[in-house]
Design brief:
The complex is a heterodimer of chains A (107) and B (433). By secondary structure, chain A is mostly helical. Chain A has a single domain (2-103), classed as Cytochrome Bc1 Complex, Chain D, domain 2, CATH 1.10.760. Chain A contains 6 helices and no strands. Chain A has helices at 4-21, 28-37, 39-45, 64-75, 84-88, 93-103. The radius of gyration of chain A is 14 Å and the shape is globular. The relative contact order of chain A is 0.17. Chain B has 433 residues and is α/β, with parallel strands linked by helices. Chain B folds into 2 domains: 2-134 and 285-429, FAD/NAD(P)-binding domain (3-Layer(bba) Sandwich), CATH 3.50.50; 138-282, FAD/NAD(P)-binding domain. Chain B is built from 12 helices and 25 strands. In chain B, helix 3 crosses helix 11 (331-349) and helix 8 runs parallel beside helix 9 (227-237). The longest helix of chain B has 26 residues, at 404-429. Chain B is globular, with a radius of gyration of 22 Å. The chains are: A mainly alpha (107), B alpha/beta (433). At the A-B interface, helix 1, helix 2 and helix 3 of A face helix 3, helix 11, strand 23 and helix 12 of B. Bound molecules: flavin-adenine dinucleotide.
Chain lengths: 107, 433
Amino acid sequence: MPSTLARLGRMAALAATAALLAGLPAAANDQARIALVTGGCVGCHGGDGSGGHGIPKIAQTMNRADFVAMMKAFRENKNNPTVMNRIARGYTDEEFALMAIRWAKPE
Amino acid sequence: MTDTLTRRGLLASAAALPVALAAPRVSAQARMRLVIIGGGFGGASAARFARDTFPDVDVTLIERSRSFTTCPYGNLVLGGMRKIEEITFTYDGLARRGVRVVHDEAVAVDPAAKTVRLRNGGPVAYDRLVMSPGIDLRWGAIEGYTEGAAERMPHGWAPYLQPITVLERQLRAMPDGGVFVMAIPDNPFRCPPGPYERISMVAHYFKQAKPRAKILALDAKNGFSKQPLFQEAWEELYPGMIEWRGASNDGRVVRVDPSAMTLRTEFGDTVKADVANVIPPQMAGKIARDTGLANQTGWCPVKPQTFESALVPGIHVIGDASIAAPMPKSGFVASTHAKQAVAAAVALHRGQTPPDPVYFNTCYSHVGTDYGISIVGVFRAEGDRFIEVPNSGGISPRNATMSRERKEEYRRLEAHYADGWYEALTRQMFGLS
Ligand SMILES: Cc1cc2nc3c(=O)[nH]c(=O)nc-3n(C[C@H](O)[C@H](O)[C@H](O)COP(=O)(O)OP(=O)(O)OC[C@H]3O[C@@H](n4cnc5c(N)ncnc54)[C@H](O)[C@@H]3O)c2cc1C
């Protein structure tokens, strides 16, 4: 039963994803959305994505397509995960694309 | 003195602003005034996020204390793995980043006039208010458990009410062979796995310093967070030391006598303790209740998309004070409430649609040296409720599902990741990186 709010949110995400695919920088409004979607990431990997205490660095270490592929692989319990499989199953493909905007190498 | 300091602080920051910005709000272009009450996991995270994400918003953080000792890792202080200084932070980092930090107590909020009254300083006006005051304890809900009783039988559950060191000192002074008794409340309460991490960390300390000591946990419920993982680990690491008694096994404590150091259960058992840790039932912090944000449960109902109060418009209630089940009352969760609430508050102030939320939690617990376990949850808003995303999240795998090598590696990794989590989250909250 998706609400109007949820639909609008998804549209914003889609717009950002479209911009991403077109190689455009995300609009200012999307920046807030990206910051929200990556709110879970930064709790452990840090605000700059540098990791620590064995938590991997995620910033600027791979391109966007590889980042998204990695997140999808976690969903399938691949890559020997501890928490990332449990986490990845909670997010959508669009959200993986938004995460990639923040963490992957600029394209 | 606080008064003068605060006012001088206000004048100084007003002087630093361009005249047009310091003047009273006259046009739609005026900078939005976002005010946050409470500088804990919710409030400090909100301040940091607002400052970084919305440079054109004025961010004021009202926190009564000049330093903040975290609840997370307090259990490691009991276990002798951390010192209290290592889990205590100041607000200098946030102030350096441009958050106006006001060290004062919010004593009243006028939602119609949109002002916060302070104990010492002058009133603070807001366009939108975020409140993250944490919990208060229900004194007297367990008969005899008053503020006075808490000195003999510490709770150690809210550092702004009682430092964890009170309980730490009692544990250090306890004779070997003594009994440490815990009273654990029914849901909902702050940090569902917290009491069981505490049992583990006290056991870790006893194993080294007081090997003949025992732990008796009296619980007002019949099950608890990460239960199979905790209980497997207790048998493995601390065999014979820990007894956990659930509600149907007469675990609910109904009365305490601090002078006799006894706890009485629902069905009339009387237990004598050498050290007693009583974690009483809880409710939203006083300022939230005084503002009319709490319902009959003592907690604050909110709109799941925005964390705006369901009872009073213009005020967003986040963190432990809010009713956000199935999300647990955790620090990590509070930080994700904070970000959504700030983004929603700014959007609503500007007449825009708030973004679609996704809330997140990972709670690690330390059970022993190089032995950590976790629970994960991803949550969303659906209509007027919060839901956990189906098939996501959950607890670390049980011992029997892994080879011994993988199990040891898994527990060790999660202990280290816990340290990484603690460092990452606190550094962000307090503007240190
Ligand atoms: C033993 C223990 C272990 C825990 N471990 C973990 C863990 O490993 N991971 C995790 O995620 N969570 C953990 N938690 C839970 C976590 O501590 C809480 O969920 C979190 O602190 C909630 O954040 P909050 O912002 O709601 O409240 P708090 O963090 O308690 O912040 C409230 C702040 O508001 C201030 N305040 C209140 N009223 C006023 C007022 N009127 N004026 C000015 N200031 C005011 C207080 O001084 C305080 O600083 C643990 C809790 C305990 C007890």
